[in-house]
């Protein structure tokens, strides 16, 4: 389902907007830096879903653009039969960030979905926005144009949160194969959580309202189906007409209220508050595949755009910095066989040429950061009241150090860039981020050994088939 949280720039201590959240999928997750790329005339990309997907469809090709932007993203290997690799989004060199969040359509729309649906799927849309958009508004335009031209291949409805330094947009893409979509603008004073993504009342009597956009048939189709009656003089509530009708879920209402309360303080919302909002045990557990916090800077060198990343749910890992200027990701944070779909039937052995692992042997010979942190998460979860406060205190201390170091890192890189030494800037950033990501991993292993030893001594290792976790709102 995933989780997204947008905080407008007027509500933060540093005057910067933020987009945060996590991916909610059980398969393998890995961190990627995707370079800017040039593509020949006539190039195409494959999009859509296969006949084996939960809501079946057909793959198709759409035109590629001449140049795609450098971006940081987390990829994963499975969701509801949609072709891998998949992504919920990330950040591009132009300062556009994307989060994909499930948003179910009403049952009747899902039933209308053609068996041969085609066009981009939710991951395709997130990836294309990362690769092409130079602003959040342009990201909305891209999604609208892609749906109009090529259709939309869905698994029951979805949404995207697209943000830049000045604004964000919630985009809801409806199931049913009818090209239905709507978008709501969020500004500098907005707090918005998505899980699922939602839009409430749309002022359809003001078709040029600057905060809302939608497909030409959004209202007319609802009228045709008898889901909305203009004569009743009722507001057009998108969630009620086309969604699950539940409005804001309890977890969404809670975190939006909590962040609004923190924004009202004299100190407003700091980055530690946003780390907390992604880490809190009320919202984050084993389903969180990774964590992400993106500061949405305005005009900065592309190399200095960055996000804070945890390889699994933030309960079990600290947020570490990943800059756009990094040339490579540590091997430990790349794709491993751990939880990668299909790897249980493959080998790292050429005698099985038709079933060779998709993971390079050298990468697999390194530790899997996902496996290390997930092991810690499972140890903590079994005795949450005892171990979570201890682990959280360690992560928060690391994050305080990293955020304090951040201005010095930026000054160093900017000095190198101004001196005409971009390669040295990239080398410094790569060294710095690699060092901190691996330091987080080492600390994760140290905590794991300590908590495992104490678990064995105090409680023994449980074989209870019922897993434990902290109580969550959703």
Q: Explain this structure to me?
A:
- By secondary structure, this protein is of the alpha+beta class.
- It has a domain at 3-323: 4-Layer Sandwich (Penicillin V Acylase, Chain A), CATH 3.60.60.10.
- Helices cover 33% and strands 20% of the residues.
- It is built from 11 helices and 20 strands.
- The strands form 6 sheets. It has a 6-stranded antiparallel β-sheet. A 5-stranded antiparallel β-sheet has the order 10-11-12-13-16, covered by helices on one side. It has a 3-stranded antiparallel β-sheet with strand order 3-8-9, covered by helices on one side.
- A hairpin with a 7-residue loop joins strand 12 and strand 13 (181-186).
- Helix 2 crosses helix 3 and helix 10 (384-418) packs antiparallel against helix 11 (422-458).
- The termini are close together.
- The model has no long low-confidence stretch (mean pLDDT 97).
- One of its GO terms (molecular function) is dipeptidase activity.
- It comes from Dongia rigui.
- Its EC number is 3.4.-.-.
């Amino acid at each position: 389902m995933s989780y997204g949280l947008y905080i407008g720039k007027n509500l933060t201590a540093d005057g910067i907007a933020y987009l945060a959240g996590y991916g909610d999928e059980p398969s393998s997750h890995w961190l990627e830096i995707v370079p800017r790329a040039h593509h020949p005339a006539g190039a195409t990309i494959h999009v859509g879903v296969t006949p084996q997907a939960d809501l079946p469809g057909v793959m198709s090709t759409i035109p590629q653009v001449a140049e795609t932007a450098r971006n940081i993203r987390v990829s994963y290997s499975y969701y509801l039969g949609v072709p891998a690799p998949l992504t919920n989004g990330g950040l591009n060199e132009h300062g556009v960030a994307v989060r994909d969040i499930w948003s179910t359509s009403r049952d009747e729309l899902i039933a209308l979905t053609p068996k041969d649906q085609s066009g981009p799927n939710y991951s395709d849309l997130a990836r294309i926005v990362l690769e092409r958009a130079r602003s959040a508004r342009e990201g909305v335009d891209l999604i609208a144009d892609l749906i109009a031209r090529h259709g939309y291949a869905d698994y029951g409805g979805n949404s995207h949160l697209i943000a830049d330094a000045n604004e964000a947009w919630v985009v809801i893409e409806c199931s049913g194969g009818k090209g239905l979509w709507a978008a709501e603008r969020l500004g500098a004073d907005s707090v918005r959580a998505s899980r699922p993504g939602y839009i409430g009342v749309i002022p359809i009597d003001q078709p040029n309202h600057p905060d809302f956009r939608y497909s030409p048939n959004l209202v007319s189709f609802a009228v045709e189906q008898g889901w909305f009656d203009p004569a009743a003089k009722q507001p057009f509530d998108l969630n009620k007409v086309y969604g699950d009708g539940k409005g804001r879920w309890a977890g969404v209402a809670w975190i939006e209220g909590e962040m609004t309360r923190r924004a009202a303080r004299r100190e407003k919302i700091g980055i530690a508050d946003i780390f907390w909002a992604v880490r809190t045990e009320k919202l984050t557990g084993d389903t969180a595949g990774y964590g992400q916090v993106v500061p949405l800077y305005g005009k900065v060198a592309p190399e200095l755009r960055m996000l804070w990343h945890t390889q699994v749910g933030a309960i079990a890992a600290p947020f570490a910095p990943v800059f756009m200027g990094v040339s490579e990701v540590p091997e430990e944070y790349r794709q491993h066989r751990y939880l990668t779909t299909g790897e249980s039937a493959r080998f790292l052995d050429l005698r099985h040429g038709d079933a060779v692992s998709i993971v390079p042997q050298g990468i697999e010979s390194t530790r899997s950061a996902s496996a290390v942190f997930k092991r810690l998460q499972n140890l903590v979860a079994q005795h949450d009241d005892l171990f979570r406060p201890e682990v959280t205190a360690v992560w928060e201390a690391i994050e305080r150090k990293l955020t304090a170091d951040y201005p010095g890192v930026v000054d160093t890189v900017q000095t190198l860039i101004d001196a005409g030494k971009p390669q040295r800037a990239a080398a410094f950033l790569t060294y710095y981020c690699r060092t901190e990501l691996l330091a987080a991993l080492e600390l994760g292993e140290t905590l794991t050994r300590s908590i495992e030893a104490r678990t064995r001594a105090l409680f023994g290792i449980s074989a209870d088939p019922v897993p434990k976790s902290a109580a969550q709102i959703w």
